Amino acid sequence: MADHVYKKIELVGSSPDGIEDAVKNALTRAQKTVRNMRWFEILETRGYLEEGKIAHWQVTLKVGFTLEG
Amino acid sequence: MADHVYKKIELVGSSPDGIEDAVKNALTRAQKTVRNMRWFEILETRGYLEEGKIAHWQVTLKVGFTLEG
Amino acid sequence: MADHVYKKIELVGSSPDGIEDAVKNALTRAQKTVRNMRWFEILETRGYLEEGKIAHWQVTLKVGFTLEG
Amino acid sequence: MADHVYKKIELVGSSPDGIEDAVKNALTRAQKTVRNMRWFEILETRGYLEEGKIAHWQVTLKVGFTLEG
Amino acid sequence: MADHVYKKIELVGSSPDGIEDAVKNALTRAQKTVRNMRWFEILETRGYLEEGKIAHWQVTLKVGFTLEG
Amino acid sequence: MADHVYKKIELVGSSPDGIEDAVKNALTRAQKTVRNMRWFEILETRGYLEEGKIAHWQVTLKVGFTLEG
Amino acid sequence: MADHVYKKIELVGSSPDGIEDAVKNALTRAQKTVRNMRWFEILETRGYLEEGKIAHWQVTLKVGFTLEG
Amino acid sequence: MADHVYKKIELVGSSPDGIEDAVKNALTRAQKTVRNMRWFEILETRGYLEEGKIAHWQVTLKVGFTLEG
Amino acid sequence: MADHVYKKIELVGSSPDGIEDAVKNALTRAQKTVRNMRWFEILETRGYLEEGKIAHWQVTLKVGFTLEG
Amino acid sequence: MADHVYKKIELVGSSPDGIEDAVKNALTRAQKTVRNMRWFEILETRGYLEEGKIAHWQVTLKVGFTLEG
Amino acid sequence: MADHVYKKIELVGSSPDGIEDAVKNALTRAQKTVRNMRWFEILETRGYLEEGKIAHWQVTLKVGFTLEG
Amino acid sequence: MADHVYKKIELVGSSPDGIEDAVKNALTRAQKTVRNMRWFEILETRGYLEEGKIAHWQVTLKVGFTLEG
Questions:
Q1: pTM for this one?
Q2: What is the distance in angstroms between the Cα of A12 and the nearest Cα belonging to chain E?
């Protein structure tokens, strides 16, 4: 990792199934336009309720990726 | 959401099964007395150990609900 | 203020007109059920956009009030 | 503590005698309306001066209590 | 909001007229290149002085927008 | 700005009219004894209530000024 | 808990399977040398990506244990 | 408090006797040069050990005072 | 202090008598195994209630000690 | 600076030679695609060790640049 | 250090040469009017760019000094 | 890094020569008793003054190392 420069972006993903799935959904979407993603850090975990049940989990994360060349 | 006023309360829930279940247990209990819960934010995640195993997970969360009328 | 005990609650108010109005709307609503409100502290200021314009401002605040007798 | 759900509330107590007494005064007052208080956490410690002397200490604390049944 | 993935970017806007206008100026500029902006959060509020008067207010904000498709 | 050394001081201003006016009142007063004020940063925004209305807004700010020579 | 003195240490555990498993892996390893572990607090949750997929989750936690006698 | 402008300064006081005394020692010294001190807020509490005993407590505090006229 | 290297450890002490005593109890226990303790910093102050009274105070602190040779 | 809108991005740079060089390496790389960079703020400083020596320093920074017209 | 009362002030220094030099420049200037400076703590490190190069580093620091007599 | 468990310890190092050297001195000392150190994070940077000059820089850092087997 010594020679690389990374950029970090902030994303918000969600899922009805839980925290890990909300992260995966954000990363799957980001993959379409961002190459070389290397790591992420969870910043915030929330959820939204409908009729007393958790309708979806929502996770804010930072994702680091290598800036090529 | 433009016209509403919300109140936020702080709860601590626990579960032997994991983080998401600890959140659900807090919300299920809160539901008995709080109406119109809309979202939650996780503040802190802990766990308690007995004989070297995780006996229960414990999650502190803020819950926002609509103040009616 | 020496002999009093205060309680602080967390509210979220909103307004299409700006930060100060969002605070006032939260306080006006709280007044219906909370007596002896003495001060507030702004925790967070947000806004929601519709078609590129700010539809409403949203302010999270803590409100302190005297616990009587 | 595994099965309980707790609620946390924020209080401000004061005393001319010191930090510990300001905490106790807040708890004594809270006891009139809150049952099953279990623990507290000090968030902030302040004091107010009159003619160059500390007139009273003021402590902000969170108190956790069990939500029954 | 359940199925969306959002990206958050950080902007700094300014205005001679006050905090709300500094936010609006940042959003107006961002709109030229960012579609689907949904909300913002104020991170920091500053001001710059010239000859003892506030020449302009400067607000740092995060803006969340929907990542399409 | 490359060669200057700045000092920052912390002030609290207030106003019945709103956040921006509370800042201006603090700066107007500071100007009597502090020269070369260059910028400020808002740290905290509060308000005090009397009979259910906001009697005054209170803003804590840091002010940076150039140390001459 | 009244008479005990606890020490807290900071650990980082990881797992390909999720947040809870990363915590358990850290605790299982710690158990080999630390007795009387009582609770943990999650400080940070990260993940590392390989070829666009989460290769492993990584959780930083503090663990509290009783100092005997 | 509506019309006043306050300045806040940061002090560090110490005492062999405890936290409250360290605060008082800082205030007693400040009084020699600062008029109209109104309140303080504790920022940090430390202590220094000599031969295994607490030689003195050390408290960092902010003190607010009224800027006259 | 110029040539030394210090290590800092985190401890939790408690006492029925107050904050200072909880600190002292943690230090007394640590002394059995840690030499050359030089200073401590209070991180968190809590208390536990039994039947509406404070059963014990609990203080989390960091302790710095010199690493010899 | 009164009329500008700035965007801030987060970068991570590294260098075997020290903190300032890690910053410069991040800026040199960013320059290839970002115009009008105006300032940066260091968020985090880390280092990685190989065989007991610092192999490279790693600095996370925010960089602000002017959004043109 | 047991009997002293300290005051802490906040300064911003800068240098084209690096972080340590920016600190030294702030201290050199402060020395003209502040006696008995004892320690400093770095709060924030920034830099300003001109034509893609670091024109100067800028460091915000707190400086503690003994209040005499 | 996927299968490892790490422990993090907190150290304070110092040097008359600057920030990087204070870090190196802490790591050199730690190496005598800690194996497999992998990374560090700077938490705090301070300095101590004697007769108006920086006598030594002091850096607090966390060091992560692999827990073997």
A1: 0.96
A2: 5
The shortest CB-CB distance from B10 to any of D3, D4, D7 is to D7
* Cβ-based neighbour number of residue G9 at 10 Å: 18
Please say if the pLDDT value at position K14 is more than 70: yes
How confident is the model over C34-44, as a mean pLDDT? 97
Residues in Cβ contact with H35 at an 8 Å cutoff, skipping those fewer than 6 apart: H65, H68
Nearest residue of I to residue L46, measured between CA atoms: I2
Q: Please report all neighbours of F, defined by 3+ CB atom pairs within 8 A.
A: C, E, H, K
Confidence of residue I8 (pLDDT cuts 50, 70, 90): very high
Chains F and D touch (3+ CB pairs under 8 A): no
Please provide residue F62's backbone torsions phi and psi, each rounded to the nearest 5 degrees: -100, 140
Q: Is E16 left (phi over 0), alpha (psi -120 to 50) or beta?
A: alpha
- Are H61 and H41 in contact by the 8 Å Cβ rule? The answer is yes
Query: E49: closest CA among E23, E16, E26?
Result: E16
- Which residues of chain F are within 8 Å of residue C39 when distances are taken between CB atoms? 46-49
Q: Dig out the tokens for B5 from the structure.
A: 């006023």
Amino acid at E62: K
Candidates K28, K29, K43, K56: best to mutate against F (most CBs of F within 10 A) is K29
Neighbours of chain H (3+ CB pairs under 8 A): D, F, I, K
CA atoms within 13 A on the CB side of J15: 18
D29 neighbourhood in chain C, CB within 8 Å: 5, 67
Q: What are D48-65's pLDDT values in tens digits?
A: 999 889 999 999 999 999
Quick one: pLDDT at residue F15? 97
CA–CA dist J59, E28 (Å, integer): 32
What's the token pair of residue F67? 């140390």
| β-strand pairing of D6-15 with C53-66 | unpaired
**ipTM for the whole predicted complex goes beyond 0.85:** yes
Q: Is it the case that residue K65 has pLDDT exceeding 70?
A: yes
- Give residue-wise pLDDT tens across range F19-51: 999 999 999 999 999 999 999 999 999 999 998
Q: Do H5 and F16 touch (CB under 8 A)?
A: no
**Which residues of chain I have a Cβ shorter than 8 Å from any chain H Cβ?**
19-20, 23-24, 27, 31, 37-42
Q: Report d(CA H58, CA K37) in Å as an integer.
A: 18
Mean pLDDT of the L11-29 span? 97
Q: How confident is the model at residue I2 (pLDDT cuts 50, 70, 90)?
A: low
Closest residue of chain E to A48, computed from CA coordinates: E2
Instruction: Region of F58 please: left (phi>0), alpha (psi -120 to 50) or beta.
Output: beta
* Token code pair at residue I16: 């029925």
Please give the pLDDT value at position G46.
Answer: 98
Report the C-alpha gap between E22 and I21 in whole angstroms.
51
Give, for all 69 residues of chain E, the pLDDT tens digit: 457 999 999 999 999 999 999 999 999 999 999 999 999 999 999 999 998 899 999 999 999 999 986
Contact between D49 and H41 using a beta-carbon 8 Å cutoff: no
Contact C29/B62, CB-based, under 8 Å?
no
Three-class SS state of L20:
helix
DSSP string, J43-65: EEEEEEEETTEEEEEEEEEEEEE
Nearest chain A residue (CA) to E1: A14
* Token duo for residue L69: 């087997």
